[in-house]
Amino acid sequence: MKKIILVLAVMLILAGCTSNPDTSKTPANAGDEMRVHFIDVGQGDSIFIESPNGQTMVIDGGVKGAGPEIVAYLKEQGVQKLDAVVATHPDADHIGGLIAVLNSIEIEKFYDSGKVHTSQTFEEMLTLIDTKNISYNVPKTGDILAFDEAVSVKVLSADETASDNNDASIVLKVTYGDVSFLLTGDAGVALEKEMLTQDVKATVLKAGHHGSNTSSSQSFIQAVHPEVTVLSYGEDNKYGHPHEEVVERLQEIDSKIYATAKAGTVIVSTDGVNYDVGAKEWSNNIATTPLKKEGIDIISKDLENEIVAIQNNTAEAVDLKDWQLVSIEGNQIFNFPNVMLQPGQIIYVTSGSAAREGQNYLKWTGRQIWLNDGDAAQLLNAKGEIVSELD
User: Fold this and answer.
1) Distance (Å, rounded) from C-alpha 145 to C-alpha 138?
2) Are 379 and 296 in contact (CB under 8 A)?
3) For a designed S-S bond to 168, which of 90, 113, 255, 306 qualifies (C-beta 3.0 to 4.6 A apart)?
4) Using an 8 Å Cβ cutoff, are 308 and 388 in contact?
5) Separation CA 108–CA 304 (nearest Å)
6) First CA to last CA across the chain, in angstroms?
7) Residue 386, phi then psi, degrees to nearest 5
8) Helix/strand/coil for 82
9) Distances (CA, A) of 75 to 61, 78, 82, 105
10) So where are the chain's domains?
11) How far apart are CA 206 and CA 186, in angstroms?
12) Is the pTM of this model over 0.70?
């Protein structure tokens, strides 16, 4: 409990397919089934694992509103106690639903990224773990989580000191016999590159960050080379997940794609030799939202100094009142004041500790906005139409 108390103190200070039936590596528990449920929680992640020996684990819980649905689903599966719960990182679409799980089901061990976050949801989660006297653990890269002797649960990445929530993601490789699952949380391309020094090849991949192009780089997809990929996202989400280039990379390696937004909960069952996916394969084309060209463009984005430059490339002045600048990764929105942008003029939206205002500078906030590696920026006009974007 000392770790939880320390974290809380810091927060207060901060305010259908089948695998190759090769039986040469038949596991000792051959015939005993493991099931991995990728629960449909809308725009978020939640994974439930039932091991061959009846052990249970939940990884993430979607947004807070998904909590009661997750609890109901677990109880439908006969779950009265969870042997382990993992919060990959403290983003709300991963830990929110765990509040209901903590309040409703007995939990033996809780694994957390250790990444401190100032949200009320994160503080509530830690407080519940503490008051219920649940064993609290912050794993390190290379650790093997105690779960089931027939199943290996290896931590491929974990970094509580990461400056970015997504880079703090606990990435797990779950292996039963010849069948493995790579569960990546919201790990971005920089973290994927670091993991390439390890054995990332897996039968089933839970694509990072809901199919965003901030994850699932070409080199990573080729190294993992999953036979099956699960995309966990919400229908018609405002981020445009999954991104077209990610889907194309998966299709290039002939990975079968399953999407919770289309198929609902996706269940993969395996005896350690063969596997079966209990869901309809996703075959839809990506519907992209076209840009409405107005000549007002995001021309640069300085992640280190937190400055976004926007230029009027038209011959007329444009009133930016009710326009918005959006940080897609962080789901943060800057509403422009009544500012007239003259032809050829560049205006700078600033944030972070060095944020400034006056002349051609607008101050968004003193907090960091563009901290996430690969965070995309979108500029929306007063009608809510995307007129410019920059990855």
Assistant:
1) 11
2) yes
3) 113
4) no
5) 41
6) 41
7) -75, 120
8) strand
9) 15, 5, 11, 9
10) 2-13+32-278, 296-390
11) 10
12) yes
CA–CA separation, 170 and 184 (whole Å) = 7
pLDDT tens, residue order, the chain (391 aa): 555 555 555 454 444 444 444 433 444 454 589 999 999 999 999 999 999 999 999 999 999 999 999 999 999 999 999 999 999 999 888 999 999 999 999 999 999 999 888 788 889 999 999 999 999 999 999 999 999 999 999 999 999 888 888 889 999 999 999 999 999 999 989 899 999 999 999 999 999 999 988 899 999 999 999 999 999 999 888 788 899 889 999 999 999 999 999 999 999 999 999 999 999 998 766 555 555 667 899 999 887 789 999 999 999 999 999 999 988 766 689 999 999 999 999 999 999 888 999 989 999 998 888 765 556 788 999 888 888 888 7
The DSSP code sequence of 279-342 is SPPP-PPP-PPPP---SEEEEEEETTTTEEEEEE-SSS-EE-TT-EEEETTTTEEEE--S-EE-
Q: What is the DSSP string of 338-363?
A: S-EE-TT-EEEEEESTT---BTTEEE
User: And the tokens for 325?
Assistant: 């600048």
**75, two tokens:** 């109880």
Radius of gyration, CA atoms only, the chain: 22
Q: In the block, which residue shows the tokens 């997809």? A: 221
Yes or no: domain 2-13+32-278 corresponds to CATH 3.60.15.10: yes
Token pair of 290 as six digits? 């076209």
Q: Which fold does the domain 296-390 belong to in CATH?
A: Immunoglobulin-like (2.60.40)
In contact, 226 and 204? CB cutoff 8 Å: yes
